[in-house]
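Re: your question from the hallway

Yes, I did run it. Sequences:
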Amino acid sequence: MKALLWTVAAVLTAAVLVTSVPAIAHHASGPFYDPDKSVEANGTVTKFVFRNPHSFLYVDAPNAEGVMTAWEIEMGASVSLSRRGWTPETIKAGDQIKVVGQPSRAPGTYGMCCAELTKPDGSPLRP
Amino acid sequence: MSLTSNRTRNLLDRCLRPGVCAILLAAIGGDLAPPAFAQAGADESAIPALVGVWDGGGRARRVNGPNMPWVPGENFPVLNERALAFQGVFDEAIAPKYDCVPSASPALQYDPYMMQVTQWPDRVLFRYEKDDQMRTVWLDGREPPLNEFTVQGFSVGRYEGGSLLVETTHFVFDITGFDDYNGIPSSQQKRVTERYWREGDELRMTLTLEDPMFLREPAAYTTRWLPGPDGYQLQGYDCDAEEAGHPRKFLVPKYH
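Structure:
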């Protein structure tokens, strides 16, 4: 049983490494985003820019006070995303989505990186 | 089988004899050609089979970052005072990559993308999916041009003992020419030496970096690529300058 638990833990750790590390291979995320904080946006996609060296997802979502906030979520290079089956149509304007990630550092900006994306049915969208 | 296929097969049969018609095969298509050489006196058994599309992504190795492939306490180079001074004033916003200036050695080889290798008689071509870059390694004994300095430098090489040895010089000064992550520049005295060899299905490389302007001693890393997916064609990168610079707005400015 103990061995099984260790195996499960190792597989989960490997899965986290594989899915989270390549998010931004173009540059370090640290100078731009705060890894010690987490923010969540639950709203409507307004644009998905599928490009190199990074793609960007734009989401309008209400903040805690109900004020609409325009989030800019940095994602991986289109050349890398496409190898995992993504296309410019994977996310479309008007889609509902929940995004949880690290917030941008510059005051007054609403950037996010290293995000987990979830569709309204609860299924993950893995970049 | 078509006439063309028959001709190709006959040509291939003839070319299985040592040293025959490598140039003809190269003309048909670099990927078909067995490694041939213009390197004087090179033994064909010394030539590794490097042709193919190679995957340098996350399934082959840990993805690059501030501590990879240069690991503090292991192979991270010892910086001189000049390097430390540059690093101290470095501002992430000025990194050329945010304006689509391509990645260069020794970072380019470790970027987590596909790479295609083609062996021709007088050269080896390294094509990188990252930044649409192509490096030519000349095997014909030519010398680097005296006063021509470029982002990728000038590469010459030779086969030796089952490896391809590459030496690259004549780089331009690059404010992030060390690794793209640590704010360490490289100078026009940068020298990058690469040794490529095969281990089973894998492509391996040891890269050694020298730059007396910034490093107290040479530093090296070893890495690998796995075979790319069957039939994979490298994609165009077409770096978008607007998107490349997009994250700058999220930085807390170091200078005004």
